[in-house]
């Protein structure tokens, strides 16, 4: 039976890999990416990211299709009869078929690293979208204090936009609330299944990718991406991000949703764990 001190120590050993000040003090064992303020560090072009996302989402099991006349009564019945576990299994198979690889969560190879993300089948070619960083999107002026306490899953974008990828506690409640708020009848405009064990989008696990170490250098890197205004409505059901602030239906075509994807910086084989560089210097 662990003592309180041992539990706190174990929590810290897991948390430190996501704790920016700790990473900064240990840069002799880490590397940092440097980004000029107001600029980006794209590894692949935005149109390549978009093409990959559209191709992947189009192959998923879809609750509603484009140009399909939906009877709301039928749609609600279909929603009630959905089998999340079956859909997760089908979409995982679709991911392998479409991309040539699959990724899943598992115990990290880092000492006390907690949960990590692994390539479980196939091979990831260099320059591929490997995962999404899911979560609630906060603009710099929006309050996130209480959500941030003890939260090691908050990603800071270059322009100060924050994405809270915590799948527990207050963060989970907020995402679920925002996703229900934005729902249009039976139609979801985002994916909240990443908060469950049955992922509708199998790549929405990027928040569990651990920071690199000296022995295990980064094989993926974060890349920010804004969803185009004309992104197909029927595919938004697979986007694992939602605005914190409320918006109208018209905002879907007026305000770009921020995504963060993880892109492979080299070929990655089956069985390898994914590692990124957390610490970003914005100058």
Protein traits:
283 residues, alpha/beta, four-stranded mixed β-sheet, three-stranded antiparallel β-sheet, 20% strand
Would you write up a description of this structure?
- This protein is of the alpha/beta class and 283 residues long.
- Helices cover 26% and strands 20% of the residues.
- The strands form 5 sheets. A 4-stranded mixed beta sheet has the order 6-7-5-10, covered by helices on one side. Strands 4-11-9 form a 3-stranded antiparallel beta sheet, covered by helices on one side. A two-stranded parallel sheet has the order 1-13.
- The longest helix is centred in the first third of the chain and has 16 residues, at 84-99.
- The radius of gyration is 19 Å and the shape is globular.
How are the elements arranged and paired?
Layout (H helix, E strand, L loop, with lengths): L3 H12 L4 H6 L7 E3 L10 H13 L13 H9 L3 H16 L1 E7 L7 E8 L6 E4 L2 E4 L6 H4 L5 E3 L5 E3 L4 H14 L27 E2 L8 E7 L14 E3 L14 E7 L10 E2 L3 E3 L1
Parallel strand pairs: 1-13, 5-10, 8-12
Antiparallel strand pairs: 2-3, 4-11, 5-7, 6-7, 9-11
């Amino acid at each position: 039976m662990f003592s309180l001190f041992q539990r706190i120590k174990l929590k810290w050993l897991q948390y430190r890999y996501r704790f920016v000040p700790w990473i900064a003090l240990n840069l002799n064992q880490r590397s940092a990416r440097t980004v000029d303020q107001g600029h980006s560090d794209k590894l692949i072009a935005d149109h390549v990211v978009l093409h990959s996302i559209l191709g992947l989402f189009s192959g998923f099991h879809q609750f509603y299709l484009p140009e399909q006349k939906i009877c709301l009564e039928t749609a609600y019945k279909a929603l009630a009869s959905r089998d999340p576990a079956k859909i997760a299994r089908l979409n995982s198979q679709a991911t392998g078929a479409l991309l040539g690889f699959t990724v899943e969560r598992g115990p990290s190879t880092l000492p006390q690293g907690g949960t990590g993300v692994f390539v479980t089948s196939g091979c990831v070619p260099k320059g591929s979208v490997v995962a999404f960083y899911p979560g609630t999107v906060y603009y710099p002026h929006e309050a996130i204090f209480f959500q941030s306490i003890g939260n090691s899953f908050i990603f800071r974008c270059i322009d100060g936009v924050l994405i809270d990828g915590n799948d527990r506690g207050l963060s989970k409640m907020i995402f679920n609330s925002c996703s229900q708020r934005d729902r249009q009848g039976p139609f979801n405009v985002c994916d909240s299944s990443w908060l469950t064990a049955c992922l509708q989008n199998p790549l929405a696990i990027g928040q569990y990718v651990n920071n690199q170490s000296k022995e295990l250098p980064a094989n993926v890197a974060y890349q920010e991406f804004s969803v185009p205004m004309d992104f197909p409505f029927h595919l938004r059901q697979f986007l694992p991000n939602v605005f914190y602030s409320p918006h109208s239906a018209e905002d879907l075509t007026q305000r770009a949703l921020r995504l963060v994807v993880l892109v492979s910086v080299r070929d990655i084989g089956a069985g390898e764990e994914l590692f990124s560089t957390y610490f970003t210097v914005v100058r």
